[in-house]
Every structure is written in C-alpha cells, then in structure tokens.
Specification:
Helix content is 48%, strand content 15%. By secondary structure, the protein is of the alpha/beta class. The chain has a single domain (9-190, 227-254), classed as 3-Layer(aba) Sandwich (Rossmann fold), CATH 3.40.50.720. A 7-stranded parallel β-sheet has the order 3-2-1-4-5-6-7, sandwiched between helices. α6 crosses α7 (210-217). The chain starts with 8 loop residues before the first strand and ends in an 8-residue tail after the last strand. The model has no long low-confidence stretch (mean pLDDT 93).
Length: 262
Amino acid sequence: MHTGLRGRVAMVSGASKGIGRAIARALAAEGARLSLAARSEALLRELAAELEREHGAACLPCAADLTREEEIRRWVRATVERFGGVDVLVNNAGAVQGGPFLELPHQAWLDSFQLKLFGYVRAAREVFPLLRERGGGRIVNVIGIAGRQPFPDYMIGNAANAALINVTKALANEGAPHGILVNAVNPGPIRTERWDGLVVKWSQAKGVSPAEAEAQLLADVPLKRAGTPEEVAHLVVFLASDLASYVTGTATAVDGGMVRTA
C-alpha cells in the first residue's frame, strides 16, 4: 500500500530521541521531507544526517524550546522558507514531571502545562492556517494513556493528557471543513531512555532487581512487555498518511492492551 507521504512536508517536535526519533525515521522511510525540532541541536543534526544518508530525505534540523511561543513561530517560519509549506504536524515534545500531589510545587504544574499542553496548542495554531492554505493536511498529537486512565503520582500528566485528548477532538471538528484531519496517539509503556530510568528508580525504591522491577511495572499490561518507539511510529505514519483519509477525532492507544475503552 502507498501512504502518499512521498514529497510531503512533515514537522515533528521532540524528534531528537525516543518516540520522536522513531517517528522521524518512519516518515523519512516513506519519502517525506522533514522539519525536526527539539532542544538539542547536536542530536537533531546527527539524526538529519542519518536520514539524509539512509533515505535521501531532505531534513531541516531546528533547535527550539517549545515552551516559548516565539521559538515555535521561528520553527514554522524556517520550515516554510525551506519547503514552501506544511502538510503534517506531529506534536510529540514534552515530558511531564511526576511526584506526589502534595509535594509538587505550583511551578511544576505551570512548567509542565507550558510545554506539553500549550506547546501542542501553539504549534497547532501556527500550522493550522498553513494546512488550510494547502487544502488539507494532518495533525497527530502524541499524548499518552494517562489521559484516559489516571496514574498514581502523575496528576500533572494525567490532567495535561486529558486536556490534550479533548483539544484533539475539538480541533478535529475545526479542521474537518478544511480537510485537516486531527488524531491522537496514546503510548503506554514504551522502551525509551525515560522508561529505562523509571525501571531503575522503581528497582531502587522497591529493593528488587531491574528485571523484577520491570515485571512489576508491566503487571497490568496484557502483552507483558514494553512497546518499542517504532510501534508508536507505525501508527503515527498511518494517521499522517492517505490510508487514514476517513479517520479524524480519534485517540488510539498503543499500550499492549493496558487501557481499554468501549
């Protein structure tokens, strides 16, 4: 099957590592032209060189702090100057601080919402008019299953993710008359650097081996394993492609069956 992504311009935030890096690789393999944003310029340049070498993909690495509105605008402007427009936006940046509710300072809420919730909203606001000019396009928000099922000691993330799922559905309604399809992907436990760090912390806290800690963390996952960034990227590519031309306003879990909704 053809995804129709060859030659299209895709912007990916949080692209320097983990899920974002896998998404960039998967889009490059489909022939997309890429504008990649993250805070680390060195990692972005390394990734851009890799994708150009392996897939012949045209890549624009753009170091940016997506908590800052002017830097999001700069990223969008640079993309339009390089490629002439935008077809796909993948919002992926943002790790939210966890911890017990009464121990989290108010600033932690503000900082986390500034990056994940408002970062996604601002990027969508900047790109939406460009997609409308293009006659349509795709926005894919990588959010997380905590928006469906709250997790202990993760209240900020629970709230931010739930808000983003709602934003996704509302933005899908806004985009439908213009051919702009908006969907969310909700990863569960995914084997990234962040997951590895969580396993180590859990191991130390519980006094068990890393293998035992991981088994405990995965106890509620029917498939009994963590997913891979590539498994998330496959769904993102589908939603960004012509194959998903009748899909909008959805929030799909990639979590091994951990959270199931009717």
